[in-house]
Amino acid sequence: MSQLSSKKRRIIVSLLSFSMIAQQSLLPVFASTISGAGSVTGDSVIHNTDGTNIFNIAPQAYNQDTGFRRYENFNLSEGDIANLVMKWHGVKNGQIETKD
Model-level pTM greater than 0.85? Predict the structure, then answer.
């Protein structure tokens, strides 16, 4: 079995250290972005202590019992939840009411 020289070990350790630092600092971090979330009556965004988010999204417009909403951006990170309420009835005491 061949032995690595001290100089080669230092180079390998340096390269591994640099690659770990680069992975953490140079790669972009993706976060949930939902355009307009929280801007419509019935919307809510809940920030959990574990860093995840729950988006309760109400429609902007509705036709009879079906709700509609348009998004410029809808990116959901791992662990986050988006509840899209499409059967809209209204908001009562701050809670979304839906029709079955």
Answer: no
